[in-house]
Design a protein that fits this description.
7% strand, 586 residues, mainly alpha, single chain, 62% helix
Length: 586
């Protein structure tokens, strides 16, 4: 072989390498060469049909099965390169909801955060949705528990919508290089994705409570939804207005949120839409927090009807429960008729144990208030069977179990069985340590303070002092109506040094008068901690062993227990209040 042959071979190889390097940008940008299509992009709608089965599992109380289903769906979710896409918003949000219903607040918050992180990363996706068909409206039908007082129709929205995903292959796009996805139209359920975004924001606000405005992620969510990324004057903008209102709530801008949510109740100013119930429910919370209990009750009632008409049964449960509690705070009969009708409706539905247990517990509490202890005992027994029959006993290990144990304690005390009442109360306290948002918030705040505060950080000493005042408050009448288990337990759950740290912050800020009040609270708390259940049990026994003339006209044992736990109630025509651990006539 001549020496020129190897040289020609080397030259040929070199030319090939140069050609490959020259063509590399175009090869790397070829749509089919590098397009990643997990789950066969475009071959199934988002979220998937199987996704909706998980919601039924939550309604049945099988929270573990629901979480497993959503985690499986998450594995085959769409990815754009390495990044998850908007279908994962639904899967993360409902994993969070499964955790929330089971009482795992930390796990729930992490998954709600994951859902919102994707929503923040794709703030403009609504602008790429095409709806197949037009919107119409029909008269609003009544719910089984009553008719709406809002004389507006409900919207009927297109059953199909698509979203375009991927890149339009043009010469300009080819020159840009990088990974490209073949452009396709995918069937999508934008209503469900928006519902999950709204749910994630609402639950984050509930779990974090007054700490939410100081969480840096809350501001990111607010910034992401400030712009409504849809065509001008398109009817779907109202959904984004609701999301914006919820983001305002989470960021602590309650006054602005009231206006934003009220304006978003009607789509095109004409008819209810799929997020009307969410807006009404959150307005109820805002009114309740500002002391407008009557307005709150009306919002909760209307939210239950709107949620029923659009098939959001979990929101129906929350709305009916809060309506019942608001009615109690107003001194009414607890909305017994509404709750009873909702209970009968839920009983007729298959696999609705979460709903039937919740409504049943409200009825039992009403029976106790009315002094119908026999009905309350049989009702509580029936609910126990329902909760224990759920797969995985999900309801017996949820926040509903804390409510059950609380009512069981009331019945034991009313029947004179003090030891068994004490045992049930102990279970309430242990459950609230794990599942109470109030306790979660207080422990989180105290950890922030112990780790050190900065005058330039999100949480300053001034903010911390205000938050301690909110979270270490004496339970109010509204607290006892809406969260009796937490009101009972918070004194025993509060970290022993929380009051001292609050005191030190006030002294550092030279707020001596306020610090003196806290010092008095510290002395009181130290005494109460030497008593069983922080002195509340002692108070209860004082009332239960009082002269019969004082308790003959008690309309319900719950009134007695309310006084024992630091509230006030009318007993025998006289108003009693508990301010120092024993009832005193006012």
């Amino acid at each position: 072989m001549s020496q020129s042959t190897p040289r020609r071979v080397l030259a040929t190889i070199f030319s090939a390498i140069v050609a490959i390097l020259t063509l590399q940008p175009f090869v790397s940008s070829a749509p089919r060469a590098f397009a990643q299509r997990p789950g066969e992009l475009g071959s199934r709608p988002i979220p998937t049909p199987r996704y909706y089965e998980g919601i039924r599992y939550i309604e049945s109380g099988d929270f573990a099965m629901a979480e497993n289903l959503y985690r499986q769906e998450l594995k085959s979710a769409i990815r754009i390169g390495p990044e998850q896409w908007i279908d994962s918003i639904c899967y993360y949000a409902m994993i969070g909801e499964s955790r929330y219903q089971a009482g795992d607040l930390l796990g729930a918050r992490e998954n709600y955060n994951a859902a919102l992180s994707i929503a923040v990363a794709y703030p403009n996706w609504m602008g790429r949705v095409t709806y197949v068909g037009d919107v119409s409206s029909v008269p609003k039908p009544p719910a089984p528990w009553g008719a709406s007082q809002r004389d507006v129709p409900i919207g009927v929205f297109p059953s199909r919508a698509t979203i375009v995903i991927g890149d339009k292959i043009t010469e300009e796009r080819l020159k840009q290089g990088g990974m490209m996805i073949e452009q396709k139209a995918i069937q999508i359920d934008p209503v469900e994705i928006l519902r999950c975004i709204a749910l994630s924001i609402r639950r984050r606000a509930e779990i974090l409570g007054p700490l939410a405005p100081f969480d840096p992620f809350s501001q990111q969510v607010l910034d992401a939804f400030k712009t409504r990324a849809v065509a001008p004057n398109h009817w779907s903008i109202t959904w984004l207005d609701v999301i914006w209102g919820l983001a305002l709530v989470e960021s602590g801008k309650e006054s602005s949120a009231v206006g934003a949510l009220a304006d978003a109740l009607l789509m095109a100013g004409t008819y209810d839409h799929t997020l009307t119930a969410t807006a009404l429910f959150e307005l109820g919370n805002l009114y309740m927090n500002s002391g407008k209990i009557r307005e709150a009750a009306q919002c909760y009632y209307e939210a239950s009807i709107s949620a029923f008409n659009f098939g959001d049964n979990l929101l129906v449960e929350e709305s009916i429960r809060n309506y019942s509690n608001a009615a109690k705070a107003l001194g009414r009969d607890g909305g017994f008729g509404v709750v009873n009708a909702a209970y009968r409706w839920a009983k007729q539905r298959k696999n609705s144990q979460t709903l039937t247990s919740s409504f049943g517990l409200e009825l039992v509490e009403d029976f106790i208030d009315q002094g119908k202890l026999g009905l309350a005992t049989s009702g509580l027994g029936a609910i126990d069977k329902t909760m224990r029959a759920t797969v995985g006993r999900g309801l017996r290990q949820s926040r509903a179990a804390d409510r059950w144990n609380y009512l069981n304690a009331l019945l034991f005390y009313a029947n004179g069985n003090i030891p068994m009442g004490d045992e049930s109360l102990a279970k309430v306290v242990e459950g609230c340590k794990l599942r109470s948002p109030w306790a979660f918030q207080l422990l989180r705040l105290d950890n922030y303070v112990k780790n050190g505060l900065s005058t330039s950080g999100d949480l300053t000493p001034r903010n911390a002092a205000d938050l301690y005042e909110k979270l270490l408050r004496e339970p109010t009448v509204v607290d006892w109506a809406f969260r009796p288990t937490e009101s009972l337990s918070i004194q025993m759950i509060a970290p022993t040094g929380a009051f001292e740290r609050w005191f030190c912050i006030l002294m550092d800020r030279d707020l001596k008068d306020k610090a003196f009040e806290v010092a008095e609270r510290i002395r009181r708390e130290r005494f109460f901690r030497t008593q069983t259940y922080g002195g509340r049990l002692l108070s209860l026994r004082y009332i239960l062993t009082a002269d019969a003339a004082l308790t003959a006209d008690v309309s319900g044992t719950n009134a007695v227990f309310t006084v024992a736990n630091g509230g006030s109630a009318t007993i025998g025509g006289v108003t009693y209040a508990n301010t120092v651990g024993a009832s005193e006539r006012t």
